[in-house]
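User: Sequence in, structure out. Go.
Assistant: Echoing your sequence, followed by the structure tokens.
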Amino acid sequence: MKIAKTETGEHLEACAEAPKEAICPRCGGVLELRCRRTMNSDQLTYYWRHRNNRNTDCRARQHPVG
């Protein structure tokens, strides 16, 4: 997912300057900032993922927020 929340409830976009952890806007679980290379170039793209692949029933996993 690309959008997470801070502890104060503000929206936080996944990017290189984002903190390493955030909160899921749907289930309230802990998210970790991850990155990967895009397929067509060597650019990095950032996204949030549930810590240790937890909260498998969170709807944000199948339906990105934002």
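User: And one key feature?
Assistant: The chain has a mean pLDDT of 84.
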